[in-house]
Amino acid sequence: MKVVILFDGVCNLCNGVVQFLIKRDSGDHFRFAALQSDFGERVTSQLDQHDLDSIIVMTNGKMYTKSSGALQIVKKMDGAWKYLYGLRIMPKLIRDRLYDIIAHNRHKVFGRRDSCMMPTPELKRKFLE
Q1: DSSP 19-75
Q2: Is the entire prediction scored with pTM above 0.90?
Q3: Which of 50, 81, 108, 117 gets the highest tally of CB atoms within 10 A of its CB?
Q4: pLDDT tens digit string along 9-30?
Q5: 3-state DSSP call for residue 120?
Q6: How far apart are CA 111 and CA 105, in angstroms?
């Protein structure tokens, strides 16, 4: 089963993370969709408003947001990255507060694009529409 990652398609930080994950996805675990895509909009229409400023990760029939979503991603990564999953012992309230600080400032610090990233033809299979 693939891990589906919905991300802010106009956020430079988010796009950088997607590129980082693609380069390290030797097990072909991940599929991606921008929150602004048709697929992303169908998923977000089912969520509360407070979840929309977050990465959304879908795996094993469950949906994860904020730090819990990030932990689901590192859990599937190769190498030493998977050891970051140990951060799950930190209280969710603290993890999510740190996540919120980064999410709130991501456009200010990393900038934003005018439109979503377009995958190259060879990467198109990793993106949901």
Answers
A1: HHHHHT-TT--EEEEETTSHHHHHHHTTS-GGGTTS-EEEETTEEEEHHHHHHHHHH
A2: no
A3: 117
A4: 888 889 889 999 999 998 999 9
A5: coil
A6: 9
